Amino acid sequence: MGIIQNAVEMELFLAQPEYARSIQIGQYEVNSSMSVDEIANLITGKSDSSN
User: What is the pLDDT of residues 1-20, one digit of tens each?
Assistant: First the structure.
């Protein structure tokens, strides 16, 4: 769908311990303007208070 531009980058990012142990099962609304960090925060339930 073209939302994640670099799947390898996303996988490596999510492999970091602070994300790998926190990925939440569910459905999420994402879009192509979101950064890897924003998507990771969304699917791990970590808040991104800068937005």
Answer: 778 888 899 899 899 998 88
C-alpha angle 29/35/41, rounded to 5°? 65
First and final C-alpha spacing in the chain: 24
Q: How far is CA 22 from the centre of its chain?
A: 11
Task: Say whether 7 sits in a helix, a strand or coil.
Answer: helix
User: pLDDT tens across 30-47, in order?
Assistant: 988 999 999 999 999 887
Euclidean distance between CA atoms 18 and 20, whole angstroms: 6
CA distance 32 to 25: 21
Rounded to whole angstroms, how far apart are CA atoms 35 and 40? 9
